[in-house]
Design brief:
116 residues; alpha+beta; Nuclear Transport Factor 2, Chain: A; 4-stranded antiparallel β-sheet; 4 strands; 30% helix; NTF2-like_dom_sf
C-alpha cells in the first residue's frame, strides 16, 4: 500500500489498474479526498463524502485480487478492471466483486462506473 502513496500525494496513475489499486488503498487508509478526486463527475452526489465516511466506519478492508482487465493502459482512453475485495463488517467476512469502467480525462484516470 505504500506504493500508492505517490498517487494519493498527487501523481496521476498511468493505468486504470493502478488507479483501481490506489482507490482500494484509499479505502484502507480512509482517504476520502482521494476517492472523491478520482471519481468521474457522473458519479458525484451531494452526500458522497458522508457515504464514504460511513463506509470507513463499517468496513475493514482485508484483501484485493485483480481478476481481469481490458485496456486501460497508458495509451488507452478507457479501460475495465474486474476485482474481488474482501472486507470485514461486524465480525463477518464479505466479498465485493465488481467490474469497473475507467476513463482517462487528460492525464488523469477516473473511476467512471460499474459494468453490469
Amino acid at each position: 500500500m505504500n506504493c500508492c502513496g505517490v498517487y494519493h500525494g498527487g501523481v496521476f496513475p498511468e493505468t486504470a489498474e493502478q488507479l483501481m489499486r490506489s482507490r482500494y488503498c484509499a479505502f484502507v487508509k480512509q482517504n476520502v479526498d482521494y476517492l472523491l478526486r478520482t471519481q468521474h463527475q457522473n458519479l458525484s452526489g451531494p452526500n458522497d463524502r458522508q457515504e464514504i465516511l460511513e463506509t470507513f466506519q463499517a468496513c475493514q478492508w482485508l484483501e484485493l485480487k485483480v481478476l481481469s482487465k481490458n485496456k486501460g493502459e497508458k495509451q488507452d482512453s478507457e479501460g475495465e478492471v474486474e476485482f474481488l475485495a474482501t472486507y470485514a463488517n461486524e465480525g463477518q467476512i464479505f466479498e465485493h466483486r465488481e467490474k469497473s469502467h475507467f476513463k482517462k480525462m487528460g492525464p488523469q484516470w477516473l473511476y467512471h462506473s460499474i459494468i453490469e
